[in-house]
Amino acid sequence: MKGKKKFTIGVLRAIGVCALVGILIGALAFLEKDHSVEPAQIIFAGTKDDADCAILQSGGSCVVIDTGEAQDAEHILELLRERQIEKIDCLILTHPDKDHIGGAPALLDALPVKMVVCPYYNKDNTPYRDLQEKMEALGVSQLVPSRDRVLVFGDLKLQIWPPEDFYYEKDNDYSIAVLVEHGSVNLFFAGDAQKQRLQELEQREFPDIDLYKVAYHGRDSSHSAQLIRQIEPRLAVVTAKEPLGETADALKEVSAQVLCTLGQDYFMESNGDTLEWKRLSASDP
Q: Which segments cross the bilayer (predicted)?
């Protein structure tokens, strides 16, 4: 009788353990589903010359990284209208050169911009000074980071990496770098970083990079090549006709697929696990 009782208790315990395991598995599946990310869309705007502009959307939020030249503004606004974007939650101006800030005045005139992120820059630069005065007149909040910051828009997590010094000989080295995380998909934007700034970025630890917006339009640079070999991106966006010299060689070495934006728009979508892309034509929605 005792043996039978022990057997019954053992069976009940086994059933209880199985039930508990089932509940835990179900709870984990629910939590995983509950915390899944909404798809994110990314557009790299085709520009008339070597210039940068990327539009990122997630969960009703919009982030724009750089604005091309003034001559690109109407095309960028057209892309925003096609995506039915009526506000920009965050505009990141990586540095004050005209091929990155040129379209900003037109965007500020056309759409509400909640926040602008830009680097500390104390040189005399009339277009940049005029742009700052325009932002102040419009009451746009400006973030000038002196340390790493994290911003979240929808399911996009942006790690903002400002330049580490307050003075650089080359304006391009003032470039803010941005690591965008969407689930397990990672995008890295290096502005126009040149030797000094690239040396700073080489000291960083990177996750697996799905897409790299290549520094300084993919121009020939041993330090640009070194960073490419370090991060080994799957996709590389070059905001020019083509990458050059050692930079081009490094992209081949790591088997990166290269997308060039001179006169060509690209649309991408991330589901948090994978990143897909296609070229946009005038007939695409």
A: 12-31
CA dihedral for 219, 221, 225, 227, sign (positive or negative): negative
Residue 30 to residue 259: CA distance in whole angstroms: 38
CA distances from 63 to 89, 91, 124, 167, 278 (A): 6, 6, 28, 27, 20
The CA distances from residue 248 to 212, 219, 262, in Å, are 13, 8, 16
Residue 116, both tokens: 């602008």
Ranges of each domain in the chain: 1-35, 38-280
Instruction: Return the closest-CA partner of residue 101 out of 82, 124, 129, 79.
Output: 129
Contact criterion met (CB below 8 Å) for 44 and 66 = no
pLDDT in tens, 170-226: 999 999 999 999 999 999 999 999 999 999 999 999 999 999 999 999 999 999 999
User: Which residues does 235 contact at the CB level (< 8 Å), separation at least 6?
Assistant: 210, 211, 212, 256, 257, 259, 275, 277
Closest to 32 in 3D by CA, of 40, 24, 22, 43: 24
Cα separation, 109 vs 78, whole angstroms: 14
CATH topology of domain 38-280: Metallo-beta-lactamase; Chain A (3.60.15)
CA-to-CA distance for 196 and 72, rounded, in angstroms?
29
pLDDT digit string (tens) for 61-82? 999 999 999 999 999 999 999 9
